[in-house]
What we know:
Structural class: alpha/beta
CATH topology of the largest domain: Rossmann fold
CATH architecture of the largest domain: 3-Layer(aba) Sandwich
Strand content: 5-15%
Amino acid sequence: MCKDTWLEEKRYRATIHSISGIGSGKLRQLIARYGSAINAWHSLESTSGLHKEEPWIQQIGRKRRELNPFEIEEALKEKEIFTVIPEEEDYPPLLRELSDAPPLLYYKGHLSIRKEAIAIVGARRSTPYGRAAAEAISKELAQHEIVVVSGLARGIDTAAHKGALTGSGITWAVLGCGLNFMNPPENKKLAEEIIEKSGALFSEFMPEMPPEPQLFPMRNRLISGMSRGVVVVEAALKSGALITVDFALEQGREVFAVPGPIFSEQSKGSNNLIRQGAKLIEGFKDILPEIPSLQGSQNQEKNEEPGQKNRTGTHLEKSLEHEELLQMISDLPLHIDQITMNSQLPPEQIPLALLELQLAGQIEQLPGQLYVLAHKC
């Protein structure tokens, strides 16, 4: 089909999809039956014989007379919502491979489908350690021009998106609601920054669909479906992040997990993944060998100047922040709360700085968020 035909096809898919009860599955069935949404729309123009059709197809036939495809298209444009379908080149390529790929994907922002993507997911009720780990790994992925995919939820998802933006990279947020809603509301500014910095918000739900619990597992399959692999950073034994892992395994994606403290409930799920065979990672260099398509990302590292590197393979820049923390930490365990009280740094910067020092092998974390200087054997 030519570009104009794709525009028309998207217009009719969006119109049919706007009908209550017609989700991605029903839309996919309709297209398979009639060959396209255009054909389905015109085939259902006549009411003769409509009574022989299934109830949901009858509903489309009845609603058809009340809907104006051009008005629906304009309403999307007014909200700066765009659509892309699997037949178009700009549709996320890995997602296109799935048998249940959404026949219509809504997005705000910018498509960057020629880039590789890795998903980072985890607990909403995250710890400072988990958020710092997610932010550090996301930043590193972004610096290697890999898109970071997550769900814009509280906790690990938020940290993952922020880390990618800090690394001057692109991040995609997949929502469990329509794009007319922002969930959680406090991430509105983050969502705007994602779009501003060449990222995108995605949803397979019609824009007016509010967030509902049953939608999030469907959202999770898109997060893994868009990505070469899924990194789990903190997950309780019944975490929703483990649903994303199940989808990832079904889709043939790689699964990685960040190890967490053995006393933390928020790490029991991710630690259990490692026990079951997920790849334990501490940074980008641990992901790289498992995904051949990412290995071109090593080129930048080969041209780097020799210098002090941490265990993730990135340079640990000497900074006043690191020096201040190193002067404070000794052989005697020091709690993170005490570090925060004694430090001149903004509290939100301390977990990430401590993690960077850990990954550089200069300090160690003990159970209970206690820190000591590391001693090399």
